[in-house]
Design a protein that fits this description.
Blueprint: H1 6-12, E1 22-26, E2 32-38, E3 45-52, E4 57-62, H2 64-68, H3 77-85, E5 91-92, E6 97-98, E7 104-109, E8 112-117, E9 123-126, E10 132-137, E11 143-148, E12 153-157, E13 163-167, E14 174-176, H4 181-187, E15 193-195, E16 201-208, E17 214-217, E18 228-231, E19 241-248, E20 253-256, E21 265-272, E22 275-281, E23 287-293, E24 300-307, E25 320-321, E26 327-333, E27 336-341, E28 344-345, E29 352-359, E30 363-369, E31 376-381, E32 386-388, E33 395-401, E34 404-410, E35 419-423, E36 426-431, E37 445-449, E38 454-459, E39 471-475, H5 494-501, E40 505-510, H6 519-523, H7 529-547, E41 552-562, H8 564-575, E42 582-586, H9 597-604, H10 611-617, E43 630-635, H11 644-655, E44 661-665, H12 675-692
Parallel strand pairs: 3-5, 39-40, 39-41, 41-42, 42-43, 43-44
Antiparallel strand pairs: 1-2, 2-3, 3-4, 6-7, 7-8, 8-9, 10-11, 11-12, 12-13, 14-16, 15-16, 16-19, 17-18, 19-20, 21-22, 22-23, 23-24, 25-26, 26-27, 27-28, 29-30, 30-31, 31-32, 33-34, 34-35, 35-36, 37-38, 38-40
């Protein structure tokens, strides 16, 4: 069999993400690490595995193919949408949940409910009703709660198999036990039910989306197919109504009350021994409240508040209870994102906390950065002392429980991913990562470009001799909030190196608004997303060209990107044709009024209050300015950045008499996992860029 090309591997491996251990969970006694991993770097079907910390061995616990036999996996539209929100491209077992003692695990597979004994590996299907979504074992291991595609929340007894609804929708657009669209897409909250520590009741989200705009996503390639109705809360329009309930196992419930009129967003929720803990925010996101809950009455008390003149960021892993009863949060202090216990910062200034991984009596394990191109895993004591868990330059993440930590590491000097297991800081073994080798290692130079020291990666063709010729340039950023591309990790730059090898000098720049450089940097884009993020790409290009005057041809500069990067790409040729000479815009936001409330209003305010802000951050009115080649690519089934964005820009360009190209991807969502589509998509982009730049 012929060796697959890079693009074939890139497509089959879902951008080299398959085969990597994920959903890592260290068991309560620290003896095992549970995780999901596909069978290879080109298989999308996940299985549940256990790694034994004491003897450095792995064991498969549950295999999707064995459980389903010859039956094809079936997913409900609701589960597909949930996976789209979390950018889950896998199949088979994609997640799991355990009891407190880690004796059992539950998971959904093909819409059915499964339970596995973690000691023996014996798996069995539990009785369930409807298509199962997001099952969770209660801490005692006696019951499983699960949401259903029809909007109910049900509980099944593990021993007897008795299955009953504890909450059912009262109307068509009411859903119990699931996260609403905004929570999944923008808040990084993908669940809507939480067990009490004693397993006797649940904290349950109920959302009513009957007042949310109905948009219709059609399948133009199959005109007989009825368009799918999609509730989408566009900027300035009505959100779903969110309430929270304490639900007993017999269905008795009490509403959790807070000032929902002032604080309608439920950003975080959890339930530990100290009680439920919530984070709520107002529509303008300029403040937040952390609430405790009286589990008998449902009343809440404000434990802490925070505010900001721009917005309060929803940070991963917080709020959470510390063992001593204090509340752990992240606060912005001295231009540093710091850990705080009951509002008092204790992590050092200059260490930018990114996420909380674990906490115990002696400290907190976090991911953090002092250099934004790197992410480290460190332990921070309550006295502020910092102990690195990994110290090599690179991009590291993972999980921990007590003395045991598992780190997922990617660096510039290794291919792919390493997953070491550590006990008390000492490496005791390694979980295998089965990710594919791309066939080369990217040759990446990381720079600090311009007066703002924009973190920038430059990649040349691997056979390029410095100073031998001036290459056409390809800007390849994401460039927007919450996204970084210029990282000290080889796997982050595989596609960019392939583009470089096609004859480009590829520039990947992270401008203002991107993570890792502190709250002031993140918030500097407030009200001016378009102008600031585009200017930083202009400045990064100029700085790189100044450093490599004999290697970059700035008279031939292309720009490509997807999502926010697509927005930037289209904007680049519309607003700065003097700098950028051709663009490929993938799934671009073109009219910011068509994007969702939580994201767009965070950065631009409410469109009724700031119509001029929305006008200047949209690019539809720039259509008459087009004088450079522009290719727009968009999936017709995209329910995040809707295909309407591309159609509206294309219509405006046509009305202005401006030639352009549109490539619709039939049936494709915001992600493009299909192998043939993904492979050919890159080839078509290269061809367009070369023809447009005269290469």
């Amino acid at each position: 069999m012929a060796t697959p090309s890079f693009l074939q591997l890139y497509a089959r491996s879902r951008r080299f993400t398959l085969g990597i251990p994920r959903n890592l969970h260290v068991t309560a006694d620290g003896s095992r690490v549970l995780f999901v991993r596909t069978e290879s770097g080109t298989s999308a079907t996940g299985a549940l595995w256990a790694y034994d910390v004491n003897d450095d061995s792995e064991r498969k616990i549950a295999d999707a193919a064995e459980l389903l036999g010859s039956a094809d996996e079936q997913l409900s539209p609701q589960e597909r949408a949930r996976r789209e929100r979390s950018r889950e491209t896998g199949a088979g077992i994609v997640g799991f949940h355990t009891d407190r003692a880690d004796t059992k695990a539950t998971f959904a597979l093909s819409g059915r409910l499964w339970l596995v004994d973690l000691a023996t590996g014996d798996a069995r299907e539990l009785p369930s009703t409807g298509s199962v979504i997001d099952p969770k074992l209660d801490p005692t291991g006696q019951r499983v709660a699960y949401a259903t595609a029809d909007g109910a929340l049900r509980v099944v007894d593990v021993e007897s198999g008795a299955d009953r609804a504890v909450a059912e929708p009262e109307a068509e657009d009411v859903v119990w036990g699931q996260a609403e669209f905004i929570a999944g897409e923008e808040m990084d909250r993908h669940t809507g039910h939480w067990w009490a520590p004693d397993g006797d009741r649940l904290l349950v989200e109920r959302y009513d989306q009957s007042m949310v705009l109905v948009w219709y996503i059609a399948d133009p390639a199959n005109p007989a197919t009825v368009p799918a109705a999609h509730r989408y809360p566009a900027a300035g329009t009505t959100n779903a109504e969110i309430t929270l309930w304490l639900v007993d196992l017999d269905g008795t419930r009490r509403e959790v009350t807070w000032d929902r009129e002032a604080m309608p967003y439920l950003v975080r929720a959890s339930w530990a021994e100290q009680g439920p803990l919530l984070q709520v925010m107002p529509r303008d996101q300029k403040s937040a409240q952390f609430l405790t809950v009286d589990v008998e009455s449902g009343t809440t008390s404000v434990a802490q508040t925070m505010s900001d003149s721009a917005w309060v960021e929803a940070r991963p892993g917080v709020p959470t209870w510390l063992p001593d009863g204090r509340i752990l949060t992240m606060v912005d202090d001295e231009d540093t994102i710091r850990l705080a216990a009951d509002g008092e910062p204790f992590s050092p200034v200059g260490l930018q906390i990114r996420s909380v991984v674990d906490s115990d009596q002696t400290g907190v394990t976090v991911t953090a950065s002092t250099e934004p191109t790197e992410i480290q895993v460190v332990r921070v004591g309550y006295d502020g002392a910092v102990e690195p868990i990994v110290s090599e330059p690179g991009v590291h993440g993972g999980t921990a429980n007590g003395d045991v930590a598992v780190v997922v590491s990617s660096r510039l000097d290794i291919d792919g991913v390493e997953v070491p297991v550590l006990r008390k800081g000492e490496r005791v073994g390694q979980i295998r990562s089965l990710d594919e080798y791309a066939g080369f290692r990217p040759e990446v130079t990381l720079l600090r470009a311009g007066e703002r020291e924009l973190r920038t990666a430059i990649l040349f063709p691997r056979d390029h001799e410095p100073g031998s010729r001036r290459l056409p340039v390809l800007m390849d950023p994401y460039g927007g909030p919450h996204g970084q591309r210029a990282m000290a990790s080889s796997r982050h730059h595989l596609a960019s190196q392939w583009y470089a090898d096609q004859g480009f000098a590829v520039v990947v720049a992270d401008g203002r608004g991107t993570p890792g450089r502190g709250p002031a940097w993140e918030r500097s884009v407030y009200l001016e997303l378009a102008a600031i993020t585009l200017q930083d790409q202009v400045d990064a290009l100029a700085a790189v060209a100044e450093r490599y005057p004999d290697d970059l041809d700035t008279s031939r500069v292309g720009f490509k990107g997807w999502s926010y990067g697509g927005y930037l790409a289209a904007m680049a040729v519309l607003r700065r044709p003097d700098v950028f000479h051709a663009a490929v815009a993938g799934a671009p936001v073109t009219d910011v009024r068509l994007y969702d409330t939580f994201y767009q209003e965070r950065y631009l305010g409410h469109p009724d209050d700031n119509p001029d802000v929305y006008d200047r951050n949209s690019i539809i009115d720039d259509a008459p300015k087009l004088e450079r080649p522009l290719l727009i690519i968009h999936g017709t089934s995209d329910d995040n950045v809707l295909f309407a964005h591309t159609l509206r820009l294309s219509s405006a360009l046509l009305a202005a008499g401006k030639a352009h190209q549109v490539l619709p991807l039939s049936g494709v969502t915001h992600m493009t996992p299909q192998e043939v589509v993904a492979e050919n998509l890159e080839l078509l982009q290269v061809r367009f860029l070369k023809e447009s730049l005269g290469i």
